[in-house]
Write a structure and sequence with these properties.
Distance between the termini: 16 Å
Structural class: mainly alpha
Largest sheet: none
Strand content: under 5%
Length: 87
């Protein structure tokens, strides 16, 4: 896989941490903060572990801590994938 899409990220969120509180992850959630979606740092840590394992990728933990929305998170993961492909 050379690109992580929103649908895969939301599926991982559901698998690792369950459905967020009262938010439809199938809607337009790219710019909605994870906190507002009902996911905390532990949920994102679990998702990150799965992504790193499945994609054989090491992600910058400090940068991921600053990713507050799915868009920001996807940008970081996809940037790391692109850098790996370019190397």
């Amino acid at each position: 896989m050379d690109h992580l899409e929103l649908d895969r990220l939301t599926a991982l969120l559901r698998e690792c941490a369950g459905e967020g509180e009262g938010v439809d992850l199938d809607g337009d959630v790219l710019d909605v903060p994870f906190f507002d979606l009902g996911y905390d740092s532990l949920a994102l840590l679990q998702v990150t572990g799965v992504i790193e394992r499945d994609l054989d990728l090491m992600l910058d933990e400090e940068a991921l801590d600053e990713a507050e929305t799915p868009r920001q998170y996807l940008d970081l993961v996809n940037g790391a994938l692109a850098a790996r492909t370019a190397a």
